[in-house]
Amino acid sequence: MKLNTVIKGDALKQLKKLPDAFAQTVIADPPYYNVLEDEAWDTQWKTPEAYLAWCEQWVDESMRVLRDDGLCFIFGQLGKREHIFLHLMSRLTQQHRFHDLIIWDRAVGYNERRDSFTPQYEMILVLRKGEEAKFIKDAVRIPYDAETIHAYLRDPRYKDLKARKKHLNKGKFATNILRVPSLKGLSKEKVGHPSQKPLRLIRKLVACSTEVDDVVLDPFLGSGTTAVAAEMQGRRWLGIEASPTYVKMSRQRLKARVKAA
C-alpha cells in the first residue's frame, strides 16, 4: 500500500479497503453535526441518530485498522446546540476501550453567549484497541522557564542538585489539558479550512502516540494538518478526504512544505 498520500473518497468506504492492524495511530477530526451550519458536510444527516450510527461505523473501521497497541483520537465539541458529542462518547466508550479524555484549551473563547459561559475548549476522546497502548510521555514534556528551574534548585530538600537539574531540564509531564491557541484569522498557518486545527496541537498527538516510521491515519484529512505533523516528525501517514477542494488544499500545503524544506 502506498503511504504518504492523500486518498480522495468517502471515509467509511475507504477505511473498509484498508488492512487490519495497519496504523499505529488514528487522528480523526470528523464533522461535528450541525455546528458549522453553512457547511454541507456538517449538516448532511437528517437526525442525531443517523449521525451517531455513522460515527459508530467509521470508528469501528478505524479501530479495526489500528494496531493492538494503537490509539485513536477523536475530536468533538460541546455546547447547548452541539451537545451530540456527549452521546457519541457514551456510545463509543461502551463499545471500545476508553483510554483518556483530552481537553483542548483554545486559549481564547469563541461564539459569545448571553446566558452561559463563553466556550473555550474542545474535547478529544482517546480510545485504545488493546490492554496496553504505546504512549511516549517524555515526547510531550513542557519545559520549565529558567526562573522556575532556579527556584527549584534552591530548595534545600534536594541534595543531588545535578540529578535534580537534569530532571528539571527535561520539563514537566503534560496533563490531559492541552493549552494551544486556536488559529486566528490573520494566522500564517491558516489555509482556508473552517475548522483547521493548529499544527502544534496535532504534533503533540503524533509525538505521544507514535515513533519514527510508525503510520498515522487521518480519515478526515481536511487541510492536511495531520499529514504535515507526521512528516515533520518522521512518521509515515495516510489521509482520506472526500472534498475535492480540501484534497487540493492539503496536497498544495504538503507540496509547499517540501519546497520550503
- Which residue ranges are poorly predicted, with pLDDT under 50 across at least 5 consecutive positions? none
CATH class of the largest domain, please?
Answer: Alpha Beta
Total domain modules = 2
Helical residue percent? 25-40%
Shape: globular
Family: Belongs to the N(4)/N(6)-methyltransferase family.
Keywords: Methyltransferase, Transferase
Pfam family, one: N6_N4_Mtase
GO molecular function: DNA binding; N-methyltransferase activity
Characterise the protein shown here:
The chain is of the alpha/beta class and 261 residues long. The chain folds into two domains: 5-134 and 175-260, 3-Layer(aba) Sandwich (Rossmann fold); 141-174, no CATH class. The protein is 34% helix and 20% strand. The protein is built from eight helices and eight strands; from the N terminus they run E-H-E-H-E-H-E-E-H-H-E-H-E-H-E-H. Strand 7 (215-218), helix 7 (225-232) and strand 8 form a beta-alpha-beta unit. Helix 2 (48-65) packs parallel to helix 3 (84-95) and helix 6 packs across helix 7 (225-232).
What does the secondary structure layout of this molecule look like, with pairings?
Layout: E1 5-8, H1 11-16, E2 23-28, H2 48-65, E3 66-76, H3 84-95, E4 97-105, E5 121-128, H4 146-153, H5 161-170, E6 177-179, H6 199-209, E7 215-218, H7 225-232, E8 236-241, H8 244-260
Parallel strand pairs: 1-8, 2-3, 2-7, 4-6, 7-8
Antiparallel strand pairs: 3-5, 4-5
Helix pairs in contact: 2-3, 6-7
